[in-house]
Specification:
56% helix; mainly alpha
Length: 147
């Protein structure tokens, strides 16, 4: 029986390059490459992962290939990103970070995450996707590891 892991690096975390979500994407793709990512978590999904790849000009398949073949540490992954990104200037990073921080889930996603966590949708929880995704990850971690 193999052990799988819920990725717990927040999309609100940046590494030395200053790119939000990049450490989480590295963790997810690394877990997927090792066959250890929890069910329901894609290595590179359609949300923030795709936003990061598009904004930096990274080919998602090349990201997955590099991580699968090299099993890099996070700093080594950032080194690869530096060599392969087409848009890694401060303005591009800032624009991406603003879009990540400002992303708001649709009503159904928000309600589902709050409900799973026993929280009411009364406006008391920050509605941004980073915070809601954190709640979702913590819930999934609790269900798969602690319960």
């Amino acid at each position: 029986m193999s052990t799988t892991y819920v990725p717990l690096i927040s999309s609100g975390t940046a590494g030395p390059l200053g790119v939000l979500h990049l450490p989480r994407m590295w963790q997810k793709v690394s877990l997927e490459a090792a066959g250890k990512i929890a069910a329901g978590y894609p290595g590179i999904g359609k949300g923030y992962d795709s936003m990061v790849c598009a904004a930096l000009g990274l080919d998602p398949e090349a990201v997955k290939k590099f991580i699968k073949e090299s099993k890099p540490t996070y700093p080594a992954f950032e080194g690869w990103v530096k060599k392969n990104a087409k848009h890694l200037d401060k303005a591009s990073i800032h624009k991406l970070n603003v879009s990540i921080a400002g992303y708001i889930h649709d009503d159904g996603t928000r309600k589902g995450i709050l409900s799973a966590n026993g929280l009411t949708d009364d406006g008391s929880v920050l509605p941004d996707a980073i915070n809601l995704n954190n709640l979702d990850d913590w819930y999934e971690f609790h269900q798969s590891v602690l319960k």
